[in-house]
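Thanks for the sequence, V.! I ran GTP diphosphokinase right away. Repeating your input here for the record:
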Amino acid sequence: MANEATKEKLDIELEAPASFTSPEALYQDLIQTIRRYHPSDDITMIEKAYKVATEAHKDQKRKSGEPYIIHPLCVAIILADLEMDKETIEAGLLHDVVEDTVMSLDDLTREFGSEVSFLVDGVTKLTQLNWDKDKVEIQAENLRKMFLAMAKDIRVIIIKLADRLHNMRTGQFWKPEKQKEKARETMEIYAPIADRLGISKIKIELDDLSLKFLQPEVYYDLVEKVHLKKDAREAFVQSIVDEVKSHMEEAGIKATVGGRVKHFFSIYKKMVKQNKTLDQIYDLFAVRIMVETVKDCYAALGVIHEMYKPIPGRFKDYIAMPKPNMYQSLHTTLIGNNGQPFEIQIRTYEMHRTAEYGIAAHWKYKESGSGAVAAGSEEEKLSWLRQILEWQRDTDDSKEFLNMVKGDLDLFSDSVYCFTPSGDVKTLPSGSTPIDFAYSIHSAVGNKMVGARVNGKLVNIDYIIQNGDQIEIITSQNSKGPSRDWLNIVKSTQAKNKINQWFKTEMKEENIVRGREVIERYCKAKGINWTEINKPEYMEKVMARYAFKDWDSVLASVGHGGLKEGQVVNKMLEERDKKLKREITDEDVLNGIADTQGTATLNARAGRSKSGIVVKGIHDLAVRFSRCCSPVPGDEIVGFVTRGRGISIHRTDCINILNLPEDERSRLIDAEWQVPEDGTSGERYSTEISIFANNRIGMFADISKVFTERQIDITSMNVRTSKQGKATIIMTFDIHGMEELNRLIDKIRQIEGVLDIERTTG
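Predicted structure:
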């Protein structure tokens, strides 16, 4: 019986194996998990995928020092815990081989078939970034790829979620800034997607891990406080569970009753929303009743409301009106016999399975065990995904798309349920108006809307929709379209986007004219010569920066207020200055040098210098390294023409170069490192680093040991210790180049008590 299997799985968590578990043990674990739920015993392809992945990743290590194969294995175990099909698990084992190893997509298709290679390709594409763009743009483009992949096959995103979950579990090996960046992305995008797919098992864990990295003090404080009263709480929950059980038996309802503490992120969210301390939040736990049929759900609810007093307005029926992610349950908050409120959730076993595993719960196997997927019908339920794909087609602007999706996936938003005249349920964000409702039906309905009736009565368009309202939209063909004021009234991201879209397309010509005027007016006010910067080469840079396809779109965006005129003009000025600087550097300065130093022979090609520096356009000039920033091979460098002492070489991030007066900048000259013919360089270069650490006995000994092991000669050392016990150690030493320096810094970072390391920039 399906229910029996579900009952067994109720308390199984997504497995998180201990660190440094051997790959073989993990593989055995994976096979056991698959055999627990899969009807066929044929695991030859999974075995093959494991061997291929092991071979492909054999020389790779993770940041923790573990063999890399551990990561794909753990991803596959998470997928197996979600009871995914064999193809998905194979793709989970192989998801990094195309990106990180020599194996190609064609090899995969040959070995594992087109389905597995399609899934691996989908996951790979989600992780390939274009580093020429800024972070927001990368994130936006990735999102686009993600939703397109989801549209083709939802399993791609389920593998990606499992991949992100395992990376977050091992996030302690990342640098702090990376921890924060990844946690923020997880909280804004991946956790809400897991939520929308209904996979609460993944969503809950991602939320908690993100909170742990973003706000560690809050997280550990919560953990501690929740743990403090653990025994008293468990005793209270157990007494309720026992009481409910006996009443269910009396009523003749077959039920499984259990209690659980809410996860940390949901407690934190409650504390933020309601502005309460932990002591003021009563419903830290929920009691869950699981029964066989929907009829039993309502029967159990009757028994419960007879036993305890329900709190008015705190009853939610998600069985009659499921959430957009297919979640169904009855929620009711009650007052216990000791006066303490607590929540009870009532659902069938099948509903529970959907609540925990969401869309992943619907990967059914045909009895033949071929692993064929029967989930197409389930994808139809994901109306939100279709909506996002519509947006994707509607908007050219990646950042706008990112904001829309983030707004739509907002974790903190509550919902209101209302009805169409024909009785269909619509779910909207809390605080929505009839305008939001109109646009949720269709953009054409919203654009032609002239009024609305709620429960048969005419209302204002800014009326706040209440749960259970029946709404009828009045449209007119004579309507001139939405008003800009509507943007201040609507609540849903979808409505805002569709209104903006209307203004963009309907009024594009006007916006282009307005945008052009606004930019010219701005240049006039700032005393900028517009004709000087209004050139195709600078326009292209603006279009690339803000992800527009043509210049008219940029002007239209400025016209309707999406882009600020200052952003456009400043970017163009920046590009012009870069170009001028290049021209000055190459011609004026070199000519100047030729005049002042008759001995210097100009060479069209870059010449070689004894110092290992290639200085653009000058041969055999006296070159010296500046002491203020101590450049080493691998650093980006620039030359500065000194008076009578040749050229001094600085790092491009040197403070003295960055703060150079405008009139001195003409003396800067391009410089680059000479690559030796044999690819090796015996030269050593002096450099300086600052180490910030908590002072302790043996700290200097540990740092010195790192230098001794690498046979690096320390030429000077300066140590200051503050009253707070923070030590600043400035060290000067000789080194071959950046690679060696980075390895050294990475090693020092691992020393206990080291907080940060900086290079001296002047």
